[in-house]
Amino acid sequence: MTQTLRRVAVVGGVRIPFCRSNTLYADQTNLDMMTAVLDGIADRYGLEGEKVDEVTGGAVVTHSKDWNLAREAVVGSKLAPATPGITMIQACGTSLQAAMGIAAKIATGQIESGIACGSDTTSDPPIVFSKKFAGRLAEMSRKKSAWEKVKVFKGLSPAELAPVPPLVAEPRTGLSMGQHCELMAQDWQIPREEQDDLAYESHKKAAEAYRSGYMDDLVVPHAGVFRDNNVREDIEGEKLGELRTVFEKSERGTLTAANSTPMTDGAAAVLLASEDWARQRDLPILAYLTHYKTSANNFVAGEGLLMAPTIAVSEVLRQADLSLQDFDFYEIHEAFAAQVLATLKAWNDAEYCAHHLGRNAPLGEIDRTRMNVKGSSIAVGHPFAATGARITGNMAKLLAKKGSGRGLISICTAGGMGVAAIMEAA
Question: Which residue, 294, 385, 377, is CA-closest to 335?
Fold first, then answer.
């Protein structure tokens, strides 16, 4: 342990291409993909056979067999088997939260290095039996004779055998994330056209990032895939307005498949370290992770399921004594275009900032030309637990290329939570 806090270096990030659910990664598991990004980090930074002090990460959509996912990925990777693996989940904020935990340990001298990672697949969801039938199976396992086991199934109905897919609704409200975001869009009066425009920009920016070669050292091939298969280089803005809404079928509906993130498979990882550890290995320091915050709101009472990042950002700005305008880049996770636009509107709303953020004045507007400059989740996709590591690695590269400045990260999550972080150029 150190008496003074140390700077936390972001060495760099790696991810595999993200693919729409049930397409090119249909046969890939969370373990396959997480192992792939750990290997990508090992290859990129010469860590094959090396012990890293900690690998922390997880997946949101998981099987019960994945209870030790991070450690199993380490054991199957090129890293030294002596590297500990810690599995954790915070919905869409998982890998950013993992980076925050690692950063805190590096800053206080508990560890010298760590990899934050996340993997998710909706192509390989856990399908379980009903609670009643699962109870029969559990009871059967306690019986000794064959006849006693058979009697357990007396009165069995075919309905009990129906598989139960993963829950896509918030347990407290029964509404899906998209339905919640529709309510936010209505509350904040976010027009359909603005949402479609943001989606169009996301695809165009991501396509240009690939075309210019920017993505070359951020994305490593996996399973024969070399780039995200959701990015639409030939997207036509006028056609976006022709799509039907998906969460609200009435004329009030504004969210479509195009201005929402698709179900996506993929994984990402980011390497963090103390300055000494990185320099001893002649590794680059792209940026520093300096401040971070997790917040939550009362979404059940109507505060907006995906509005908690407004709080997290406000609090991390207080922590760093900065204003919302003090940044060169903004990476605001695009769960839905409406969510991003509602967040921007809330920061500039005096009543909201006073009531929910405890501020005497609005945080104000940001320069939109600095936001998601290489595209974001609507275009590249959103494997839930992987998005934080993707964004952190991307922000580090943006700051390194500029050679100066700061970046602000904002990620919304299920359960009415938000995760925010500040990074500075090295």
Answer: 377
Write out the two tokens for 195: 């949402």
Res. 149: pLDDT tops 80 = yes
**pLDDT for res 125:** 87
Strand 406-413 and strand 417-425: pairing? antiparallel
Neighbours of 80 (CB within 10 A): 14
Q: How does 267-291 read in b/e, with b if 16+ C-beta sit within 10 Å?
A: bbbbbbbbbebbeeeebebbbbbbb
∠ CA 43-47-52 to the nearest 5 degrees?
Answer: 130
Q: List, by residue number, the catalytic residues.
A: 92, 382, 412
User: 21: Cβ–Cβ under 8 A, 6 or more apart, which residues?
Assistant: 121, 122, 123, 262, 263, 264, 265
Residue 218 is encoded by which pair of tokens? 């951020």
Distance between CA 423 and CA 309 in Å, rounded? 16
The angle at the Cα of 101, spanning 99 to 103, to the nearest 5 degrees, equals 65
- The arithmetic mean of pLDDT across residues 222-238, rounded, is 95
Which range, of 129-138, 199-208, 224-233, 237-246, averages the lowest pLDDT?
A: 129-138
Whether this prediction's pTM lies above 0.85 is answered by yes
Residues 6+ apart with CB under 8 A from 193: 241
Comparison of pLDDT for 166 and 54, the residue scoring more: 54
Pick the closest to residue 238 from 208, 202, 200, 198 (CA basis).
Answer: 200
For residue 21, give the nearest of 90, 126, 117, 124 by alpha carbon.
Answer: 124
Rounded (10°) angle between helices 387-402 and 94-107:
60
- Band (pLDDT 50/70/90 cuts) for residue 129 is confident
Query: Which residues does 422 contact at the CB level (< 8 Å), separation at least 6?
Result: 289, 290, 291, 292, 316, 320, 322, 406, 407, 408, 409
- Identify the band that residue 126 occupies on the pLDDT scale cut at 50, 70 and 90: confident
User: Do 19 and 67 touch, CB atoms closer than 8 A?
Assistant: no
